[in-house]
Amino acid sequence: MTFVVPLTDAGGKPGNLLNVLVPQGVGGTTKDSLVMIAQVRAVDKKRLAGAELGDLPPHIMQQVDNGLRAVLALV
Q1: Residue 39, domain extent
Q2: If I label 54, which of 8, 31, 48, 74 is the partner at 20 to 30 A Cα–Cα?
Q3: DSSP 21-54
Q4: Cα(34)–Cα(24) distance, rounded to whole angstroms?
């Protein structure tokens, strides 16, 4: 099982714990985007066919991790 979290257009909004800001150009994004932590989904790896679109740097992934811990009530 793999967890996926969607991205959306930031629309000028700042990031926060549940909507982590990914600046334009980072991780393959073409515009400022928000990782929508509260919309995490579990999917089977078979559904993830195709090439990877990009990687997020460790400092952004740490923010995503913090948000997921809050949403999933993990210590």
Answers
A1: 2-71
A2: 74
A3: EE-TTGGG-SS-EEEEGGG-EEE-GGG--S----
A4: 10
Domain count within the chain: 1
Question: What does the pLDDT look like over 12-68, one tens digit per residue?
Answer: 999 999 999 999 999 999 999 999 999 999 988 888 877 677 899 999 999 999 999
The string of pLDDT tens digits covering residues 58-75 is: 999 999 999 999 998 886
Sequence-distant (6+) residues with CB within 8 A of 70 are: 17, 18, 37
Of 37, 43, 1, nearest to 18 by C-alpha is 37
20 burial level (CB within 10 Å; 0-12, 13-18, 19+)? buried
Give which of 10, 13, 26 is closest to 59, Cα–Cα.
26
State pTM to two decimals: 0.86
